[in-house]
Amino acid sequence: MKCRVLAILLLVATLHARAQDIVDSTYLTRDEFRFADDPRYTLLGGTPRRVTEIQPLPTIALGAAYTGLFMFLNHHMSNSWWQRSVDFRVIEDGNYAKGADKVGHTYTGYVASTVCGDLLMECGFDYTTSTWLGAAMGLGYMTYVEYQDGHGANWGFSPSDAIANTAGAAVYVARNLSPFAQNFMPRWSYMPANVVGEQPTNGREVTVLDDYNATTFWLACNVHNLLPQSAKPYWPDWMMISVGYGIRNYEVYPTLADGTRSATPLPIKRRFLLGIDYNWVKIIPEAQSMGFLNYLRQGLNYVRLPGPTLEFGDDGVRFGLFYPFAIVVPF
Q: 218: which strand partners?
């Protein structure tokens, strides 16, 4: 009897090991699916397949979600940016918003490609395929927006916008496929101008997407991962350094003494930033039961939260302890 029990236990252990081997051979291991020196997670907290094996239900859900989002954004923009249609035209606006618009297009192209790529992994596409298809889907939508701008009465197709969109998709591909590029993370921060003591846009209606007085774009660097081994103990692995760019006085028209609004906007002022940033994957512990929480934790690295920042710009040099909040020390 004891021999039979031992035989059954041995058989169960063997079957379990074989099942685990099958799982490990189907999906990338956690050690293989990383960004720089951090673990990476798919939307549901797992890892992508080694070989594409399309899953029908997630793929249908992705198609429906992509179509629904496309229709929603198209409706929103048709009621705001594209209310009046004209014949297609090309208008180059390379210096629009002092370049903040182009940086914004690059970041948006990067995020759109990232979201599409992450969803494709859940649909059963392998990592490399989902990377290229995600970039194509993200860039495809951004190109559609540019085409519609070409018919907008107040806009036009901007070649520099199209280049910036393509750059965003290229950054996504580079970060996925190049281990060195994974040490650099595009980030975004948003804080309404009036909340931090700045003047909000009053020349036209703005959205989160084009409220440049409230938006700053960043590039965070994983310093610890780039240091030689001898220097790593002296730099906390959670602390990153970010460089940023933003503007002030975008579409701001001052109020005159008689209470009317000036016909001439204030001159746009640039700001260049250098600040301490955070690697949230290092700071927040890994969730053991709900993988989606790890994806959200990972997603915090796409934004830059307030922190110590040195600002250089048209207003001079100043230091903010919790930038962009107006607790500053001017120099």
A: 187, 244
11 Cβ contact partners less than 8 Å away, ≥ 6 residues apart: none
**What's 242-268 look like in SS3?**
EEEEEEECCCCCCECCCCCECCCCCCC
Tell me: the pLDDT tens digits for 95-116?
899 999 999 999 999 999 999 9
Q: Quote the CA–CA distance of 185 and 172 in Å, as a whole number.
A: 10
289 secondary structure, DSSP code: S
Using alpha carbons, select from 273, 269, 276 the residue that is nearest to residue 310: 273
Grade residue 4 by pLDDT with cuts at 50, 70 and 90: low
Domain coordinates in residue numbering, the chain: 31-179, 183-331
Tokens for 142? 């951004």
Alpha-carbon distance of 222 to 81, in angstroms, equals 38
Cα-Cα-Cα-Cα torsion 224, 227, 228, 231, nearest 10 degrees, comes to: -70
The 10s digit of each residue's pLDDT in 178-214 is 999 999 999 999 999 888 888 888 887 788 888 999 9
Q: Which helix (H) or strand (E) holds 185?
A: strand 184-190
